Amino acid sequence: MSYIEFKDIHKYFGTSHVLKGINLGVEYGELVTLLGPSGCGKSTLLRCLAGLEQVSEGKIYLDGKDITDFTPKQRDIGMVFQQYSLFPTMTVRQNVAFGLQIQKMDKARIQEKVRQVLEIVGLSEKIDHYPRQLSGGQQQRVALARAIVTEPKVLLLDEPLSAIDALLRRNLQTEIRRIQKELNITTIFVTHDQDEAMVMSDTIHLFNVGQIEQSGSPVEIYTRPRTKFAATFIGNYNILSAAEFEKLTGAKAQAADIAIRPEVVEISNQPIELAESHTFRAKICGSVPHGNVVRYTLCCNGVNIHADVLFSEAVLLGENEEVYCAVEHKNCLGLE
User: Residues 48-62: pLDDT tens digits?
Assistant: First the structure.
């Protein structure tokens, strides 16, 4: 049995069937991400594990124990929400110490643990500041420190970075991952951001309308989506119908829909000789810079696809320019 086990979990809110038979295991020390669009059930599953919602059917096990009917306090789980809910009239020291005081821990031990955890999250110099004196990222780290100082069996993070600007968010993703590995704490992270999931996770479970669409490592999920929904949600796949694929390549499609990543489409001013590949001619119909790549729109026989090329002024292609294209057979993925 895994460290955390969800066994055939169903959750209803009135007539709304939010979780539809979830079976999921989390190993000790893993950082697992529940990824999916709003309303897919990922946060509801997290709240069921925390004891903030009761499951309608099924069982939840933690470290070999059935905790389905435990109160939140009995579960020994730490949680950080999107809203950090720090006590505004308490200092950082007092906010972090609060859970330890509830446990009636010795005062000297509380001070030692607070100091240790603030060092881990890089906020030792802010120990006597109030929340209003901290940036959003610092408040997030205080909330994280408050959650981990009690040494919970599991840490739950419910979209804790969604209100933070992009640059700081990337830094905090790295920090959270570092802290999680340093403490070796089993962690479940909820997000709708696929890039965030790719950066932080050992395992991703992609949710869709109350069910798990696909599970795997970030690399597996990204390079081998099994369904049209997975290919649409993860990455920026070109999704072609069988008819479109056949128009583009002249080859027979092996599935109703074919997914092709933009970065695997080779384009050149010269004919391309690439073994085990589909080759075709196309016209540049548009281009958009995306950070360090240029995304070209290629038009061929009434079919448009995108190709990503590393940004280099020396090889920029102009609109309406004719190009040669190639895609290896292995990179044309048939979808269920």
Answer: 999 999 999 999 999
